[in-house]
């Protein structure tokens, strides 16, 4: 059964402090963001086939300010839902409530923001979720660099027959290196064109790899379960 999807708790308006906008998540749903770091977080989640959906500004959390006793409101940035995990009897991993903040900013304000983050942790546990704070060290890494690199190949067009042959080989072997595929199927064409085809298949999620490692001839690919 598909988990209940929460709706956005508030609209995101223009801001002078950062770059806001709308990102089309998998071409189906418009996700608003308030900074380039939030946009990059969405891009990473979009690439992951384990991610089912991302909801921006998903809930309102009320908590008492320990300094003044005043009731305050906190709206985390995202709620991430995940697909069923076949390795654990098809159960859904816990949704993750996420706050995205630059490292320098949260380190400067952590004492001030700690009460609302504790409230978010309690709220998440009550919902059966978890709560995470993510900064650029968790978002702008090798995986994002690879995803952005693959993005330039996403809209390229290649012969259906060439794609089918490569996918059949990957399916038959189970896990195979880029170098093996090039040597087996792409010797007769320009190497650059052949590699572009493989990057395209990765970009459109027909094949998968360990995206957190540098891409190259030694990269191993396979057919993902959720392709």
General description of the model:
The protein is of the alpha+beta class and 227 residues long. It folds into two domains: 21-140, Trna Endonuclease, Chain: A, domain 1; 153-222, Winged helix-like DNA-binding domain superfamily/Winged helix DNA-binding domain (Arc Repressor Mutant, subunit A), CATH 1.10.10. It contains seven helices and eleven strands. It has helices at 36-47, 103-127, 136-139, 142-151, 160-173, 178-185, 191-203, and strands spanning 21-25, 29-33, 51-56, 61-64, 71-74, 78-82, 96-100, 130-134, 176-177, 208-209, 220-222. The strands form four sheets. It has a four-stranded mixed β-sheet. The chain has a three-stranded antiparallel β-sheet with strand order 9-11-10. The longest helix is centred in the middle third of the chain and has 25 residues, at 103-127. It is elongated and about 75 Å long.
Number of helices: 7
Order of helices and strands: EEHEEEEEHEHHHEHHEE
Q: What structural category characterises the helix and strand content?
A: alpha+beta
Largest sheet: 4 strands, mixed
Which features would summarize this protein structure in a list?
Arc Repressor Mutant, subunit A; alpha+beta; four-stranded mixed β-sheet; 227 residues; disordered N terminus; Trna Endonuclease, Chain: A, domain 1
List the helices and strands and how they pair.
Blueprint: E1 21-25, E2 29-33, H1 36-47, E3 51-56, E4 61-64, E5 71-74, E6 78-82, E7 96-100, H2 103-127, E8 130-134, H3 136-139, H4 142-151, H5 160-173, E9 176-177, H6 178-185, H7 191-203, E10 208-209, E11 220-222
Parallel strand pairs: 7-8
Antiparallel strand pairs: 1-2, 3-6, 4-5, 6-7, 9-11, 10-11
């Amino acid at each position: 059964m598909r988990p209940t999807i929460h709706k956005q708790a508030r609209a995101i308006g223009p801001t002078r402090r950062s770059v806001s906008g709308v990102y089309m998540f998998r071409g189906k749903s418009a996700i608003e963001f308030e900074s380039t770091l939030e946009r990059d977080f969405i891009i990473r989640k979009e690439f992951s086939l384990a991610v089912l959906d991302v909801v921006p500004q998903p809930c309102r959390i009320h908590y008492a300010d320990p300094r003044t006793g005043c009731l305050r409101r906190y709206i985390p940035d995202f709620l991430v839902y995940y697909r069923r995990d076949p390795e654990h009897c098809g159960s859904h991993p816990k949704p993750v409530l996420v706050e995205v903040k630059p490292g320098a900013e949260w380190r400067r304000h952590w004492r001030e923001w700690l009460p609302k983050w504790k409230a978010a942790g309690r709220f998440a546990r009550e919902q059966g979720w978890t709560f995470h704070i993510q900064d650029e060290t968790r978002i702008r890494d090798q995986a994002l660099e690879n995803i952005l690199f693959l993005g330039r190949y996403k809209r390229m067009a290649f012969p259906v027959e060439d794609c089918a042959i490569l996918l059949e080989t990957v399916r038959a072997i189970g896990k195979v290196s880029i170098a093996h595929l090039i040597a087996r199927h792409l010797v007769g064409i320009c190497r650059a064109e052949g590699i572009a085809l493989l990057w395209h298949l990765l970009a459109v999620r027909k094949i998968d790899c360990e995206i957190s490692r540098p891409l190259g001839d030694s990269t191993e690919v396979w057919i993902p379960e959720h392709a």
